[in-house]
Amino acid sequence: MTALTTGAILTVTLTLVSCAKASASDSNLTVPPGAVYINPLMYDVVGADYTEWRNLSTVGFNPTNTTPPFIQVFDPSFLNITGPSATIRSIVSNPGFAFAHEAPIYVPDLNAVFFSSNDGGPLGYNGWYNNSVVSMLNMTEVDMALASTTGDVNIQIQTLNLPDTVQMVNGGTGPYKGDLLFVTSGRALLPPSIVRVNPSPPYNATVLLDNFLGRQFNSLNDVKNLPGTDIMFFTDPTYGWLDSFRPEPMLPSQVYRFDPSTGQVRVVADQFVLPNGIAFTSDGKSAFVTDTGSFEGNFGTNQTLPATIYKFDVDPQTQAFTNRRVFAYSDSGIPDGIQLDATGNVFSGCGEGIHVWNAEGTLIGKFYLNSTAAEMIFTKSGLVILDAETIYLANIQAQGLDLATL
Ligand SMILES: *[C@@H]1O[C@H](CO)[C@@H](O)[C@H](O)[C@H]1NC(C)=O
Ligand SMILES: *[C@@H]1O[C@H](CO)[C@@H](O)[C@H](O)[C@H]1NC(C)=O
Ligand SMILES: *[C@@H]1O[C@H](CO)[C@@H](O)[C@H](O)[C@H]1NC(C)=O
Ligand SMILES: *[C@@H]1O[C@H](CO)[C@@H](O)[C@H](O)[C@H]1NC(C)=O
Ligand SMILES: *[C@@H]1O[C@H](CO)[C@@H](O)[C@H](O)[C@H]1NC(C)=O
Ligand SMILES: *[C@@H]1O[C@H](CO)[C@@H](O)[C@H](O)[C@H]1NC(C)=O
């Protein structure tokens, strides 16, 4: 490095330090009650001995004195997403059981959210021998309970009694032709699969795919349909093996395309560490895939591996994912499930809470929980956040991509 360059960097650094004396309260920005504006320039640098950086899959980084849960505003444009009076309230709680972790699907006709417990993990109570649990939350009951109090509520959820073909639900989308569309991680030698489940009793299920030309997948994680089509795209990391409920992997960590009308299945993207959440833009021309590579299940975390959302073009002819580029790296936590709102902002469950980036990839806000939020789903009542032992509802103004057309 030349002396000139060093001098230039010093000048910039001094500017930042003087700005760092500004605080959130100096801002004129009007945020929702309880929310905090975090000017990105107000951070103080954190020492290399700040051990929490080593454990960011479960512990968040909070540069304020406010106690979670609360909304962090990083950019004024986030206020258009929250609206003027957004709140975060706990609507279901079951301490000690990670009952609400994966596969959220909102079924508008029932006004209900379906979701599954964590597959693997210390509070999942499942593994090689035990299946995970799928439940239903009735949003009509949530609305009625919240209308009668300003505080938190604890709604009774309903557990679904699913057929044995549905083992370890980990991802979901839909409704797909009126049904829930799940991907499962499989368990022991029971294969991962894509499965349609009737959202009403008797909750009967039909397996659509459970192999790649004969080979078992590793442990399917998440699924989305290409907008306007029945074609399914799904991710297959090795968490089943990393979390000790599946045998050693036999395939690379890839993203697949499945056309249920022909049975054709093929790989559309590879070169991931642990591909996880998946989403498309509303026009179907671009895809997002999160890579939770820095969280290695039972093996812990490695901060040199991705906590990254990649963006791709969807090839108009083959629907292969091309032109891979970084969309965003999470400053704290690891991006897991991913959903877009109607105007193209990107929401991802990053452990410490839900992070929101604008379409250019700038972090504009967080629903900060300091917990283990992996997934979220838009409903008519707001954003439902699956936080393992708790479900939160953020009554925000933004609508989900899928709900905008209802
Ligand atoms: C605010 O959100 C609405 C829809 O919720 C959108 O139409 C509009 O473009 C947004 N405005 C800005 C400045 O982001
Ligand atoms: C949700 O709750 C409402 C009010 O109790 C009830 O009328 C409705 O049938 C419930 N929906 C489902 C899917 O159970
Ligand atoms: C599996 O279920 C059994 C019976 O409910 C329970 O005793 C055991 O602890 C569970 N195993 C795991 C890994 O949670
Ligand atoms: C459930 O059973 C009904 C009645 O047999 C059938 O029409 C439907 O396709 C089944 N749904 C699934 C997802 O298997
Ligand atoms: C972290 O991952 C990198 C890249 O794979 C690897 O070289 C390194 O050994 C890992 N570190 C630890 C502590 O496992
Ligand atoms: C976040 O959670 C950790 C672990 O539960 C706790 O030690 C820490 O105090 C919490 N931080 C905040 C800001 O609540």
In short:
The chain is built from 4 helices and 26 strands.
Which SSEs are present, and which pair or pack?
Elements: H1 3-19, E1 36-37, E2 70-73, H2 79-82, E3 88-93, E4 102-107, E5 112-116, E6 134-138, H3 139-147, E7 158-159, E8 169-176, E9 179-184, E10 193-197, E11 205-209, E12 222-225, E13 232-236, H4 239-242, E14 254-259, E15 264-269, E16 275-280, E17 286-291, E18 308-314, E19 321-329, E20 338-340, E21 346-349, E22 351-357, E23 363-373, E24 375-379, E25 382-387, E26 390-394
Parallel strand pairs: 1-2
Antiparallel strand pairs: 2-23, 3-26, 4-5, 5-6, 6-7, 8-9, 9-10, 10-11, 12-13, 13-14, 14-15, 16-17, 17-18, 18-19, 20-21, 21-22, 22-23, 24-25, 25-26
Bound molecules: 2-acetamido-2-deoxy-beta-D-glucopyranose (6 copies).
CATH architecture of the largest domain: 6 Propeller
Report the sheet with the most strands, covering strand number, pairing sense and barrel closure: 6 strands, mixed
What is the number of E strands? 26
Approximate shape: globular
CATH class of the largest domain: Mainly Beta
The helix/strand order is: HEEHEEEEHEEEEEEEHEEEEEEEEEEEEE
